[in-house]
Amino acid sequence: MRKMAWLAAAAAAVALGCTSPGPSDKAERLSKLPPIPSPPDNPTTDDKVALGAKLWVDPRLSGSGQMACTACHVREKGWTDGQVLSRRDNGDMNTRHTPTMYNVGYSQSFYWDGRAPTLEAQVLAAWRAQISADPAKATERIANVPAYVAEFQKVFGTAPTQDAIVKALAAYLRTKVSGLSPWDRHEMGQPNAVSADARAGFDLFMGKARCAMCHTPPVYSDFNFHNIGLEAGKAKPDLGRQVVSKRPEDTSAFKTPTLRSVAISGPYFHDGSLATLEEAVRYMASGGNADPNKSPLLVDTRLTDAEVRQLVAFLRSLTSDEPYTAPRVP
User: Does some domain include residue 208?
Assistant: First the structure.
């Protein structure tokens, strides 16, 4: 099944007419995952990624000039922010939990409801909404920095533009690969890379616990949308994917998140409603709350306490440990 998922990802990239980053991409050399595709109009290069990395931590992109993209996506928290709901640059509160940026490049739609069709579209939307920017004004600030002007000229052959900023940020995000974890080392044959509990947990994951039906290896997501019962009984339920698709069967369905590095990216689910990984596992293993639109894939698997512990041990073994040092902005 793991090999089939790898082939499916590669086939999807070909079907989309995408190209893959070159062999110089350090993140992918350190990953067991297949290459992340990039669109023909925004091929990934080392120089573009380096530029995007600086923009990612530069608060001058925001409306206030005080909030960088990385404020809501922190490496130590699995490229999330550890908050149930985060606050935007303008002070407004978000209504959904900050998703991880890990392995985002494998997805074909973005946000919890999939409303953005490309990573570039998601970056532009978040630039406007989350960090409350007028992209034209923010671009002007970037264009007033001589070092940026030289770097944009090198990468894009132009002065800083809104489109180029979006493309550089998207290229950088495509390098956010959580793909070399203790579990990957175990699968590569490294002795004692994981515990006996983690190995037993993987067997449960692929079998009795039914996790792999939606969290498909090797990315551990199917990137599809499922209702898992979390909106059941709420006075004003979040309609999720249904707002985008207009299909009743998508009511309160949300995109399956990757489980890579999930142990450091809590709290969990689109509403951030469960604080710990064990709570999230127990909720899913129980079959979730009753909801007429709940996915039929979600059933009570009757896991024992010992099996929950083993499943959590496996999920913890999916945490990658690649180094990260924030770049200096010019």
Answer: yes
- Both 230 and 253 in one domain: the answer is yes
- Coil, helix or strand at residue 226: strand
Q: How far apart are CA 37 and CA 180, in angstroms?
A: 18
Prediction pTM value = 0.89
CATH at residue 264: 1.10.760.10
The Cα-based distances of 231 to 26, 252, 296 in angstroms read 40, 7, 16
Q: How far apart are CA 41 and CA 155, in angstroms?
A: 13
pLDDT mean over 231-252: 97
Q: What is the pLDDT of residues 15-71, one digit of tens each?
A: 333 333 333 334 333 457 888 989 999 999 999 999 999 999 999 999 999 999 999
Instruction: Compute the 3-state secondary structure of the chain and give helix, strand, coil in percent, each to the nearest 5.
Output: 40, 5, 55
Domain membership flag for residue 199: yes
Whether 20 is in a domain gets the answer no
Please report the pLDDT score of residue 27 as a whole number. 39
**306: containing domain:** 182-316
C-alpha dihedral sign at 237, 241, 246, 249: negative
